[in-house]
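Hi all, long-time lurker, first post. I run a small reading group and we've been trying to get comfortable going from sequence to structure in the token notation. Rather than ask abstract questions, I figured I'd post a concrete chain and ask someone more experienced to write out its structure so we can walk through it together at our next meeting. Sequence below, copied exactly:
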Amino acid sequence: MAGFSPPAFDRETGSTSGTGRGGAAKVADFRYRPSPPPGPAGVVPACADAGVAGSTPDPFPSELHRRRQAFAALDLGTNNCRLLIARPSGEHFTVIDAFSRVVRLGEGLAANGRLSDQAMDRALAALHVCAEKLRRRNVHLARSVATEACRRATNGAEFIARVRDETGIALDIISAQEEARLAVLGCHILLQDGEGPAVVFDIGGGSTELVLIEPGGPVPRILDWLSVPWGVVSLNDSAPPPDGTEEVRQRRYAIMRDLVSTAFAPFAERLAPVASKAESVRLMGTSGTVTTLASVHLELPHYDRQAVDGLIVPSRSMREICARLTTMSGAQRSTLPCIGDDRANLVVAGCAILESILDIWPAEMLGVADRGIREGILRSLIAADAKGEESRAGLIRQRSI
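-- Answer (accepted) --
Happy to help. Here is the structure in token form:
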């Protein structure tokens, strides 16, 4: 079994001690919040946090104060820009603000190797909205990440610098390993009960991550993983144009399937003996593809996260939906609820990736998660902050002895 050395987990807290490219240590960008207004001499505003310019940190904040602190996770992907702001709630968290917008940052990247001016402008417009939300909330710790589009683009670093200058958001271009780890951390709690290994996958806009895990404990153990540069945008852009007859559409789909299956082949060889020995194989997907197909499966008139997140769907039903969608024209797909114009063509690329995953990990049921990287970031931040508070409290007690 090929090894994977992800950032080391602390199984008790869920925090990490390693980094991907850019590093998991780079978690906070306090420019989201302006300095608190000056008050009477010696008085610190109640909202002041350690690390915010102009504030005086409380060396031992109360538990109530900690629960009121907000944490933020921003994920700029190849197709979407998503933000979550949440507060700790027991062992979990409560979302207090959210934002999601299709920005198509990776549009044209496969052909040119660069982020286009139009794509960067769309992403920046969304990031300005995120920056305003972050300013208005009591954000204590935040982490903002960028994934495959910025990893691949020759001007990715320039774009990151422009985002910092114009919005104050410090995007961290994370590695494929870190992306896979965060996706697992964000959604593994929805994995259906059972024994033996499971596969969690994330079909993104510019890449797909597959992770073989051994569930158990607060954080599952990662046994093996793969990241390929095929996501719904990159695969759609690399295939022939999506127009023509049904026969032409079927040939196009076959080309996409072949591209993905070839990329998955090394991982498929490693998975085969694992699947053959397992009493049962479990599978969970987190992405717009699986949530969209789940919505079609449920025949929802509009997207409903509560109905989709945590749903268990027969894999056979997902294949049947894929077969139906790939024979339809883009105009026909766009009329379906929960697909629309934005996903009319991209969903076909997603189907090709999903079916290739089902080929190499033949689970009878597919778990669907409307959560992933952002939730993984939030869990990491909250756990790391709690551990930091415990360490600081211990240090303060030692000094007082």
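A couple of things your group might point at:
Residues 299 and 337 are 8 Å apart (CA to CA).
The domain at 30-175+375-397 is CATH 3.30.420.40 (Nucleotidyltransferase; domain 5).
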